[in-house]
Amino acid sequence: MKSSYRFAIAASVLTLFLALSFGAPAALARYDSYHSALGQLRAARAYMAHPDSGELHDQEKSAIVEIDAAIAELKSVADDGKGPDDHPSIDSHARWIAGLNKAVELLNKAHDNVQKEDDGSGAKDRAIQHIAQARKFITQAIALEQ
Q: What would the pLDDT profile of 46-58 be if each residue is shown by its tens digit?
């Protein structure tokens, strides 16, 4: 009786281990495009966070709010466990206009990645709207700087 009980426990542990080993990567891979977009959004946010003048104007502040909202939407479906400062390295010596242009480029990539997913939750559409608003605010900020 004891050996069959031990066998059942060992079989259960092995089954659980196999399920987690093969199921977890599939779950993470399910939202690869969202995870890529999250990294791009965080990097765009990082470019926005350090203006040359040391002070953010209303357009830049609004862009950051929209980027944060897009990140929140995507994390509600595909949380990658990373915080807002966990982003790919950026060129911290870039001039302000170049940084704003890089942020727009990253937002375009994030938009394309979000567009690839279909989670059925509505987060995709809301994230795309926030990304579009952020691009609009950054474009306004670029126009004011020139």
A: 998 877 767 788 9
